């Protein structure tokens, strides 16, 4: 009874510490692994002494295996084959050539600088070829890096984990068995990968069938069935060939995610929660089992080994694997900097330490210590600076251009043309054939279908553009479309025209911004455009007259004479949200209502044109001081900032 209570206490402390670390990370916007490592080390036997993972015995290996299966499956779920297809060659090189470069570079650094024997140095390098998807994915969400770079880093992290883990176990088997024939080792690697991939593909397909056709089961029960099938597949693969289970879990997740399963997001949410719990428990336990004395005993050579891995081996890896890619130099620098090691690296190293000790081979604790030193240095240095580096290199998703616009009406076509003139990719979506023809006449890419279908949004490339704008004539439909786009694709900017905000579900979604102005009647402005009763203007807010310019523009907006459409800041053109705060230097593009009859326009030599010209309009540029003086203090307070 006392032993069981001790084990229960260990697990409870681990879970509390792990979730506490996740909460702190969420509040401080710091990668969670930083706090997980810190809490684990503090609670371990070398500091406070509350956690003693060795009490779990072989149960620790069981926890590591099953939790790793969940983590890698969730990583597979996040693999978007469409996005991977765009960077397939580079990704293939990162997983193959990149693995070889890291393996060779890590071995040389560990042997020459860390003074490890060749066999142990090679084993260390085989462990650290993997990057950590459980570290990279939250990090990328936090800093919102551009989609192409994010896809590469996530794809590399997920795909290289099973390859690296199996490679490491093949190297371990070679060392323990004394087998020097490299052919056998290579064959063993491919056999494990093949077995794992076949079982995973079958299992992923089976899971998708369960979700599609088991209608009598609730979604909660379906999620648990998938978990049971996942662990069953993992054990089956491990039974057929050891360490093939890691490949099984990744492939199963990828196949399931790309099988067009209904309500897949519910499974993603469930698996995401399990992954957070698994990562929290594993890192706390493995960090608590780390001997600080063994880390400090490594010496300066091991520190230099990790530095060479970060600043020499990784850049060479990226340079070779992206040589013929369309990535720019800023993206390549960011890829060179971001390669944190994660939970798979830590768990494999911990299992290796146990295995080597059991077989009487020296170096198990040293490898574990060096791997954890690698994890700590890469996570702390790269994780804490990733946001600053991404902003400095200007590759955050805020810089992502292009737009998907729902609704082919005169106003939306005007906005699309303005973006297109800047060389940005624009995709229009509408169900009305005539409206689609009008967009095609403007040489715009059009999809004649419903934007309620996520497959249509995927076809439009929403996952790789900067802006989603819903501006049909139905405000409620616009809001629903924007909500779905935000939840499913999470583009940097999601906007919609929904005039009566209080009547839409009684609440607002923080991810969805109201476009243009609070009370915009699209129908009226479309009529103005069709009748030629508008002017297209631009104005730049300057420091000298900034306050008066704002007051004048807001007065025109309130009277319904002007609607702001776009604003340009730092050479980046964006749809203007209703709550946007203007700054000095902003270039505002707007429509000004010109209600003069067409006959009067012709008499005044105003030429009608279907194509509006972007100009500085005197009605806006020349701020009427007499009108400003008439605005009372009460009216000034009522002016809402756009």
Describe this structure in words.
By secondary structure, the protein is α/β, with parallel strands linked by helices. It is built from 28 helices and 10 strands. It has helices at residues 2-28, 32-43, 59-77, 81-86, 88-95, 97-112, 118-127, 133-143, 147-177, 182-213, 219-240, 245-257, 264-288, 292-296, 300-321, 329-337, 343-358, 364-393, 410-421, 433-441, 454-459, 475-488, 522-530, 546-558, 598-603, 618-621, 625-630, 633-638; strands at 403-406, 426-430, 445-448, 467-470, 493-496, 513-514, 534-540, 562-569, 572-575, 587-593. The strands form 2 sheets. Strands 3-2-1-4-5-6 form a 6-stranded parallel β-sheet, with helices on both faces. Strands 7-10-8-9 form a 4-stranded antiparallel β-sheet. Helix 7 (118-127) packs across helix 18. The model is unreliable at 606-610 and 631-642 (pLDDT under 50).
Main beta-sheet strand count, sense and barrel state: 6 strands, parallel
Shape: elongated
CATH topology of the largest domain: Na+/H+ antiporter like fold
Number of helices: 28
Binned strand content: 5-15%
């Amino acid at each position: 009874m006392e032993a069981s209570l001790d084990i229960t206490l260990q697990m409870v402390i681990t879970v509390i510490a792990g979730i506490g670390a996740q909460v702190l990370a969420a509040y401080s916007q710091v990668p969670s692994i930083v706090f997980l490592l810190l809490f684990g080390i503090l609670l371990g036997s070398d500091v406070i002494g509350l956690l003693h993972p060795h009490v779990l015995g072989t149960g620790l290996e069981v926890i590591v295996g099953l939790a790793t299966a969940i983590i890698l499956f969730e990583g597979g779920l996040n693999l978007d084959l469409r996005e991977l297809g765009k960077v397939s060659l580079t990704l293939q090189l990162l997983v193959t050539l990149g693995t070889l470069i890291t393996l060779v570079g890590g071995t040389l650094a560990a042997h020459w600088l860390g003074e490890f024997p060749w066999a142990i140095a090679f084993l260390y390098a085989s462990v650290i070829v993997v990057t950590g998807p459980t570290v990279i994915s939250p990090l990328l969400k936090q800093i919102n890096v551009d989609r192409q770079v994010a896809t590469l880093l996530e794809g590399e992290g997920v795909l290289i984990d099973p390859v690296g883990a199996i490679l490491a176990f093949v190297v371990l088997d070679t060392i323990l068995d004394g087998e020097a024939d490299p052919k056998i080792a290579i064959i063993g690697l491919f056999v494990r990968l093949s077995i794992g991939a076949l079982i995973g593909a079958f299992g992923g397909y089976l899971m998708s069938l369960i979700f599609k056709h088991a209608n009598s089961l609730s979604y909660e029960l379906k999620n648990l069935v998938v978990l049971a099938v996942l662990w069953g597949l993992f054990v089956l693969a491990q039974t057929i060939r050891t360490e093939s289970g890691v490949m099984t879990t990744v492939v199963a997740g990828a196949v399931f995610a790309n099988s067009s399963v209904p309500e897949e997001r519910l499974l993603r949410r469930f698996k995401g929660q399990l992954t957070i719990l698994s990562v929290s428990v594993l890192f706390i336990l493995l960090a608590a089992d780390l001997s600080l004395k063994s880390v400090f005993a490594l010496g300066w050579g091991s520190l230099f080994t990790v530095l060479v891995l970060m600043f020499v081996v990784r850049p060479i890896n990226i340079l070779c694997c992206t040589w013929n890619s369309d990535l720019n130099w800023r993206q390549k620098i960011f890829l060179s900097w971001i390669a944190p090691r994660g939970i798979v690296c830590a768990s494999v190293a911990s299992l290796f330490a146990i295995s080597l000790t059991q077989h009487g081979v020296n170096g198990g604790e040293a490898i574990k210590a060096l791997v954890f030193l690698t994890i700590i240095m890469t996570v702390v240095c790269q994780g804490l600076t990733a946001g600053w580096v991404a902003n400095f290199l200007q590759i955050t998703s805020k810089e992502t251009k292009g737009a998907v616009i729902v609704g082919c009406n005169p106003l939306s076509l005007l906005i699309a043309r303005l973006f297109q003139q800047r060389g940005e990719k624009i995709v229009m979506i509408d169900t009305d054939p005539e409206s689609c023809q009008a967009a095609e006449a403007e040489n715009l890419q059009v999809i004649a279908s419903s934007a309620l279908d996520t497959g249509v949004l995927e076809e439009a490339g929403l996952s790789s553009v900067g802006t989603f704008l819903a501006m049909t004539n139905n405000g409620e439909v616009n809001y629903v479309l924007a909500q779905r786009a935000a939840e499913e694709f999470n583009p940097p900017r999601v906007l919609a025209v929904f005039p009566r905000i209080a009547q839409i579900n009684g609440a607002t979604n923080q991810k969805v911004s109201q476009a243009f102005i609070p009370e915009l009647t699209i129908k009226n402005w479309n009529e103005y455009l069709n009748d030629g009763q508008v002017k297209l203007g631009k104005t730049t807010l300057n420091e000298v007259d900034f306050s008066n310019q704002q007051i004048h523009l807001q007065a025109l907006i309130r009277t319904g004479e002007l609607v702001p459409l776009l604003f340009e800041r730092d050479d980046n053109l964006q749809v203007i949200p209703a709550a946007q705060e203007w700054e000095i230097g902003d270039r505002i593009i707007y429509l000004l209502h010109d209600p003069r009859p067409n006959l009067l326009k012709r008499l005044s030599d105003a030429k009608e044109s279907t194509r509006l010209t972007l100009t500085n309009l005197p009605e806006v540029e020349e701020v009427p001081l007499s009108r400003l003086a008439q605005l009372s203090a009460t009216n000034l307070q009522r002016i809402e900032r756009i």
